Amino acid sequence: MNPRETVANDLLRSAARLSRWASRLAAFDVSYAQARLLALLDELGPARVSTLAEADHCSQPTMSTALQRLESQGWAQRVPDPGDARASLLSLTPAGRDALEEIRRARAAVLSPILTTLDDADVARLRDAVVALDDLLLRAAPTTSNPTRKDV
User: Fold this and answer.
1) Which CATH number is associated with domain 3-140?
2) 143 vs 79: CA distance, rounded Å
3) DSSP class of residue 78?
4) How is the chain split into domains, by residue range?
5) Which member of 19, 69, 70, 112 has the greatest number of CB atoms within 10 A?
6) Cα angle 58-41-73, degrees, rounded to a multiple of 5
């Protein structure tokens, strides 16, 4: 492997480990898939099932099932698509937004103790690296017309 491939593999492995670890230790009764979908709805705003499925790399039936679960929890709502009467748009409800913020706070609380072991200079370097990586990803392959830095 060349150095860029090595870094790419290391980043993917670390990101997956970090996400699994934070989700497992954070105290909330929401599946990782539900949390990810809440974050996706927050990022995209009102969106069609097809747009959400494409952004999450799954089939429309799979996305429809996942969205029905969020709707049954009161975390997502459907409204008619003003551009196409046959379609609907899905978005977060205020309760869904609250659930997502609770998830984000719980995950951050899990990571905060680890970050206290770093000195201020290391925290600043880590933050700079995270911002640079996020900017690179947003420039390289935005998944939406409204890319943001929000995630689960």
Assistant:
1) 1.10.10.10
2) 22
3) E
4) 3-140
5) 70
6) 95
